[in-house]
Amino acid sequence: AQSVTQLGSHVSVSEGALVLLRCNYSSSVPPYLFWYVQYPNQGLQLLLKYTSAATLVKGINGFEAEFKKSETSFHLTKPSAHMSDAAEYFCAVSDGGNEKLTFGTGTRLTIIP
Amino acid sequence: ETGVTQSPTHLIKTRGQQVTLRCSSQSGHNTVSWYQQALGQGPQFIFQYYREEENGRGNFPPRFSGLQFPNYSSELNVNALELDDSALYLCASSNGQGAYNEQFFGPGTRLTVL
After folding, report:
1. Under DSSP, is residue B88 helix (H, G, I), strand (E, B) or coil?
2. Closest Cα to residue B114, out of B40, B34, B11?
3. Inter-chain contact A100–B31, Cβ cutoff 8 Å?
4. C-alpha neighbours within 13 Å on the C-beta side of residue B106
5. Cβ–Cβ of B43/A104 closer than 8 Å?
6. How does strand A64-68 pair with strand A10-14?
7. In whole angstroms, what is the distance from residue A107 CA to residue A55 CA?
8. Which residue of B has its CA nearest to A40?
9. Measured between beta carbons, which residues in chain A are less than 8 angstroms from residue B103?
10. Each residue of A53-110: pLDDT tens digit?
11. Which of the residues in chain B have pLDDT under 70?
């Protein structure tokens, strides 16, 4: 079975600082990996996805993630945090064939002014 | 283009009751998936419907059931509600089968079971 582990349930960074949210995956087949963001009282919005086309994936709002097979990681980064980035972030892996998403437990990102 | 919509936004039920949640998929999408998100947790896959047929189910008991209609909208039914069913229920739609197809999520229905 596929799974993802998000290290750090809460991350705080200062406005303008680097954002790094960690995700490690477990998969017996080449994975499809996703990062979603959830703002309070809202559904999930796709930030970016890895589908094996390129190991460095650029997403919306200045976020990017790098797929590292040797480390089974797919960490999310943003060079400079903005107050509007405060939200819950979820890493997910897709079950090949029927789009079932398996999510991590999430990381709450707080931006310090 | 209309996004995924869900109704109702919130509802409160008592233990043992039954509830029906509704989802309208995004235009052109034929696949709907339902997820349960308990407070402080990531969403968990309940089941998926593809062209009106169930196409995968997560680790949820049979009292969780669903339907997909010819217009690809969907319902999630939960019988014999338990306190642990209190959660945000998310619906997601996509335009076909494939592990990398983007799923578009609705805003969710928050269910409280007392």
Report:
1. strand
2. B11
3. no
4. 30
5. no
6. unpaired
7. 22
8. B107
9. 46, 99, 101
10. 788 999 999 999 999 999 999 999 999 999 999 999 999 998 666 678 999 999 999 9
11. 1, 97-100
What is the spatial distance between Cα B46 and Cα B11, in angstroms, rounded to a whole number?
19
- Side-chain-side CA neighbours of B30 within 13 Å: the count stands at 11
Tens digit of pLDDT for each residue in B18-49? 999 999 998 888 999 999 999 989 999 999 99
Interface test with B, best of A44, A45, A108 (most B CBs within 10 A): A44
Closest residue on chain A to B97 (Cα): A98
Cα–Cα–Cα angle for B45, B51, B55, rounded to 5 degrees? 35
Separation of alpha carbons A28 and B94, rounded Å? 25
Angle at B60 between CA A109 and CA A93, to 5 degrees: 40
- Give the nearest partner residue to A102 out of B45, B104, B105, using CB atoms: B45
Instruction: Tokens for B107, please give them.
Output: 């805003």
